[in-house]
Amino acid sequence: MPARTGLLGLGSNVGDRRAQLQGAIDALPSIGVNVVACSSVYDTDPVGEVPEQASFLNACVLIETTLEPLELLDAVKVLERVLGRAGGGVRHGPRAIDVDVLLLGDVVLAHERMTLPHEQLLSRRFVLIPALELDFQLRAPGGSSLADALAALGLDEGVRWAGLPLRIPPRTGRSRTGRPRTSRSRA
After folding, report:
1. 155: in domain
2. Cα first-last separation, the chain
3. Which end of the chain has fewer CB atoms within 10 angstroms, the N or the C?
4. What is the total count of domains within the chain?
């Protein structure tokens, strides 16, 4: 199975938020996910069902993986638990780490466990801003422009630049030339 390029969204609002995000990025290769690029980090207002909580630190990462969509979902959910996310909490509530599969190549999936592209990809500023930092030309399967989606959103969701990109772990595997892979790919 050839590798697909994808996009993950990371978030944390408990403890050392930046360290939580870095821990997730550092662990991704252990579950079969190569990190290609990481956005800056953004301090964001909470959205969803629990607006009265600490702000989040969010980032997006471009990835490559041979995992199928549900395998990738299972792998990131196990990773969340290993990194300290408590199970059974309130939806959209406080969490040490959140890893969302936003895009995976051109895969369109409507499954009871996940939707691709992510159902909120085109409606969340805290996802669109870091994703577009990675690739301003990003489109969802079917052609929807992430830049156009961001332009259509109101400014009521606070998203503030909070720091440089997180460190990218060494990639597993090597290019055909034998040199480490360093290219950036589009989702």
Report:
1. yes
2. 17
3. N
4. 1
